[in-house]
């Protein structure tokens, strides 16, 4: 009776360990907003200095338009060995005019994102692909036999002087 009880307890413990390993882990990256907080800015009044004071440095700036600042936050769910999945994303784009005054605010969510299909083609190279065996044994028999015989060449190849003094 005790061995059945011990076996049942061990099975229960093993099940609990396995189930706890499957609990998702949520991680937040980027600028983190407090619950319910929406950063409020006034177009035409706020400047780059006031935005920096309230939000800090932006996550990134526009590549071609350096007067656009992006504050990006994302929540990803990690589940055991599976690929992480983005659960929430929020991007606030602040555009400034030439004088550094806020000119526009745009907010984007995960629903505004697009799936980008990467091309998984490989760039072709000249020649042919060698097998592992061809790579290992490829140079066997290609060395000139005179290097192993009586004629000794100096470094520098065929154009260099010979040891016997002839050219």
TrEMBL record:
Pfam families: BamE (PF04355). The keyword Disulfide bond does not apply. The keyword Membrane applies. Keywords: Membrane, Signal. GO terms for cellular component: outer membrane. InterPro entries: BamE-like, BamE_dom. Residues 156-167 have a biased composition (Gly residues). Residues 1-21 form the signal peptide. Residues 37-104 form the Outer membrane protein assembly factor BamE domain. Residues 144-167 are annotated as: Disordered. This is Outer membrane protein assembly factor BamE. The lineage of its organism: Bacteria, Pseudomonadati, Pseudomonadota, Alphaproteobacteria, Maricaulales.
């Amino acid at each position: 009776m005790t061995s059945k009880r011990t076996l049942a307890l061990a099975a229960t413990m093993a099940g609990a360990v396995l189930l706890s390993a499957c609990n998702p882990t949520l991680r937040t990256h980027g600028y983190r907003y407090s619950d319910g907080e929406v950063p409020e800015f006034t177009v035409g009044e706020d400047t780059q200095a006031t935005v920096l004071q309230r939000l800090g440095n932006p996550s990134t700036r526009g590549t071609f338009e350096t007067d656009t600042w992006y504050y990006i936050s994302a929540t990803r769910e990690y589940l055991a060995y599976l690929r992480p999945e983005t659960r929430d994303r929020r991007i606030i784009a602040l555009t400034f005019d030439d004088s550094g005054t806020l000119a526009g605010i745009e907010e984007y969510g995960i629903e505004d994102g697009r799936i980008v299909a990467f091309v998984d083609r490989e760039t072709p190279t000249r020649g042919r692909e060698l097998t592992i065996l061809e790579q290992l044994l490829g140079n066997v028999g290609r060395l000139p036999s005179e290097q192993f015989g009586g004629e000794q060449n100096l470094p520098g190849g065929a154009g260099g002087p010979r040891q016997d003094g002839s050219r």
